[in-house]
Structure formats: structure tokens, C-alpha cells
Write a structure and sequence with these properties.
The chain is 49% helix and 9% strand. By secondary structure, the chain is of the alpha/beta class. It has a domain at 1-143: Aldolase class I (TIM Barrel). It has a five-stranded parallel sheet with strand order 1-2-3-4-5, with helices on one face. α3 links the parallel β2 (51-54) and β3. α1 packs parallel to α2 (34-46) and α2 crosses α3 (64-79). The radius of gyration is 18 Å and the shape is globular.
Length: 240
């Protein structure tokens, strides 16, 4: 959200020309402005992304369910998404707006062939369970790998998490095999990030893994970890 619509569109176009399998890719296209959300979502589908992950418009938090519904109606009318090509992005801590079960039900009733899933970065197991019970065909993804085994057992489709990039092979093994010991290790690794700002922590650990300090360069208002935060993160990962 710190990048302009043009920067985000340029990034999508670079991905599309990279040779990566676009049918396995999704991209976030949410924006506070309907026009920006339209531009980004059209760009995403034009580039061949399999899905667009869309937050609700997050400035006018008193718009209510009717306002959110009208936003998505206008967005879909102007972008013509492919079947199941949209995932709702539930992140109320950042957006201030929650995709509660009644709103999800209204959106799925109104757009039954457009919305294929939901990412729940509130990581609310009860919410996910209620949504899956009402809509068993929906693909629901928590926003953390911490409880991946439990999520899979309640019917979630996997997870969508930035920190998975730090340990992709382990996360894949947990998802594939469903074994307790690797699942516990994955949970411990993810929990070690809790005491420091999440995005700077992921960037710091990526820089260390790759020996590329450029990964810590951030777009304001994001920042690098402080020396104290780095020490706290290393201590937590090393068991104190």
C-alpha cells in the first residue's frame, strides 16, 4: 500500500514478462479509490494473474455493508473478473473493515461466480469455520502459517503468508504431509517473529539468508529493524 498505482502496475507487468507461471500467481489489487482498484485489477487480469486479492475500500470505515457491496459491484462491472478470480482480503487490523460472515454471504450471493476465496489475516479460526460451514466451496486461507495443521483440519485451503518465503520447503512439507513435528517447528519459527515489526523482520531475515543487505531498504513509512529489535529477534530464534 506504500506504492503508487503505477508502481504496482509496473511490477505486475514485470512479473508477467518474467517467464514465471502466471496461472499460479495472485496479486493484491485493493485500494481506497475505486478508480485505482479498477486500474490495478484490470492490469492483473490483463497480465494473466490467476486471481486478484482485494481488500475492502479502507478509508470510509462507516460505509457499512451496503457501501462495500456497491464498491465491489462497481469494481466487477468495470473489470470483468474471470470465474473465481477474486479473493476477499480480510485484514481488519489494517483496513478497519472486516469481512464478517453476513457480508461474505451477501457478496457470494451477489457475485457467485466471481469470488473464489478469502484470505483471513485476522487468523480467526471461528470466523473461518463459520464461513466454510456456510460456503463449503470457498477457498479460505489464514494469513499465517503458525497453525497450518489446525487450519487444514478445519478445511482451509492452505495459507497466504509473507513469512513463508523464509522457510518455503518446510511449509510445503507441512502442507503436503500433515505431520506434527514439522508443523510444530513451523509454528515455532513463525512465533519467533512476534516480538518485532513483521515486515521489517522478514526483510531483515531475507537479507541475512541471501547475504544481500539491499533487502532491508524500505519504502517509507516502513523502516529497518533497530539494533535492539534485531537482537530480540535473534535471541527469540535462537531460543533465548
Amino acid at each position: 500500500m506504500s506504492f503508487s498505482a503505477k508502481q504496482r502496475a509496473d511490477f505486475m507487468e514485470a512479473m508477467a514478462s518474467s517467464g514465471l507461471p502466471m496461472k499460479r500467481m495472485m496479486v493484491g489489487t485493493g485500494a481506497a479509490s475505486l478508480g485505482d482498484a479498477v486500474t490495478l485489477t484490470k492490469t492483473a487480469f490483463g497480465c494473466g494473474f490467476a486471481a486478484a486479492l482485494i481488500m475492502p475500500p479502507f478509508f470510509f470505515r462507516d460505509a457499512g455493508d451496503d457501501g462495500i457491496l456497491s464498491f465491489f459491484a462497481a469494481l466487477f462491472a468495470r473489470t470483468d473478473p474471470p470465474r473465481n478470480g477474486v479473493l476477499l482480503y480480510n485484514f481488519p487490523r489494517m483496513s478497519g473493515i472486516a469481512f464478517r460472515p453476513p457480508l461474505v454471504a451477501r457478496l457470494l450471493t451477489e457475485f457467485p461466480e466471481t469470488i473464489g476465496g478469502m484470505k483471513d489475516s485476522s487468523n480467526d479460526a471461528d470466523l473461518q469455520r463459520e464461513v466454510l460451514t456456510a460456503h463449503p466451496g470457498l477457498a479460505v486461507f489464514p494469513g499465517s502459517e503458525r497453525d497450518l495443521l489446525a487450519a487444514m483440519r478445519r478445511g482451509d485451503a492452505g495459507c497466504i503468508s509473507g513469512s513463508v518465503a523464509l522457510w518455503p520447503e518446510l511449509a510445503q512439507a507441512v502442507f503436503r504431509d500433515g505431520e506434527e513435528e514439522p508443523g510444530q517447528r513451523l509454528a515455532e519459527l513463525r512465533a519467533a517473529l512476534d516480538g518485532v515489526p513483521f515486515i521489517p523482520a522478514v526483510r531483515y531475515l531475507t537479507a541475512r539468508q541471501r547475504d544481500e543487505p539491499e533487502w532491508e531498504r524500505a519504502m517509507p513509512p516502513q523502516r529497518a529493524l533497530t539494533p535492539e529489535e534485531r537482537r530480540a529477534l535473534r535471541s527469540e530464534r535462537e531460543g533465548g
